[in-house]
Fold:
Amino acid sequence: DLDSHGRFSAKSSHAYKNGYLERPIVDEWLDILRQIICKNWPMLIVVEHQFSIKVSHDVDTPSMYGFKSWPMIARMMVSHLIKRRDMRSFFVAPYIRATSGSELSFRDKYNTFDWLMDQSEVRGLTSAFYFICGRTDKTKDADYELEHPAIRDLLRRIHERGHEIGLHPSYGSYKNSAILSSEARHLISVCREEGIVQQSWGGRMHYLRWEQPTTLNAWADAGMAYDSTLGYADHPGFRCGTCFEYPAYDPVEQCSVNLRVRPLIVMEGSVISSSYLGLGTSVLAYDKIATLKDRCRKVNGCFTLLWHNSYLDGENLKNLYIRSISDSTRQH
Structure:
């Protein structure tokens, strides 16, 4: 039961059909076991975890106009003028395209990177930005190149402010270990040219495309430390049954894999987009996110949130994002 992107749907899962997708059921069972241990052997010291939030941002489109071809800019201008009657965007589009040289334009709606880092820093969080480093599908992958001066400038700014850079493998890479490894080397190489060195590298698959255990092993083969893909696109929740990061395991070969799995609990589009739950920026949208976050908190786990830099157009979206990350100042 795969969708048009080759993804397994939440609605086809046992968890969704039986009403426990929105519960970290593995963590709940382990918490019961912890309580039994503490009651029967009160002298034993049991490790206590702390609730934390990890925020990440898939950089699909760092600029609304900066990397588009001029014919595409012309089509967008016509759309702004005729369909939306948006005179401001009509004039801003060619201006941003013409001036996007060594850095992203501050007028660009999608250039929310400094704002995102500001929001994380004031709350003691670290943002992770995952960049596309290849092109296996002309219509699905990014329109920017990692070597572009504006992207290099962005990479430097993220690193200088103490945030994380990661990999967002291209659309067709999820079944191809060689392609994924090549894109990982590409990212690390460009970062090193800019003086950017990290202790470890991780990321998330584009469109959350995943084939088990093919993609799992591809990440490990690429030398990545962790992957944060495993969540459903059509419904938020606990696809892995847990909100804790855990060591990967290949169920086919029945062996451990040198990779950490960081479950994805909420992608903003899953809640907001009309293609999925369609809750928009309503109170219901916040309640859904808050409920899942509270369930992570109850087991002292990690609430992992994906919010695209291009999904912050307007105060309502920004306010929803701020409320979604504002309940904790602690991290693992």
Remarks:
- The chain is about 40% helix and 10% strand.
- Residues 328-332 have pLDDT under 50 and may be disordered.
- The longest strand covers residues 52-59.
- Residues 177-193 form the longest helix (17 residues).
